[in-house]
Amino acid sequence: MRFLVDAQLPRRLASFLQQAGHEAIHTLDLPEGNRTPDEEIEATSREQHAVLVTKDRGFIHHLALGTGAYKLLLISTRNISNDELLSLFVGHLADVEMALQGHAFVELTRERLIVHW
Question: Is the pTM higher than 0.85?
Fold first, then answer.
């Protein structure tokens, strides 16, 4: 599975996903880095068939219209330390992978994984 990790999330998350056997890049790896416009991030996600991992709820609207990212993993944890975030992924990665195989919009909170559609 391919992932594109958005700017509000740590680069360590992309590294974790790579170590778990996935292809993953961070927006810092794009030519414009964290200044990459949202439209370009969405286009990169579609072109590479990469799940966009973000905290930005603004991406939901475009996804619903069919003009957004390939797939979306929304992180809804409010403020969380990088270590806590990585621990959350360690505990839920298998469920995230399974949910994203058949769905386009999945949300990860501190308490659970929510499959939207």
Answer: yes
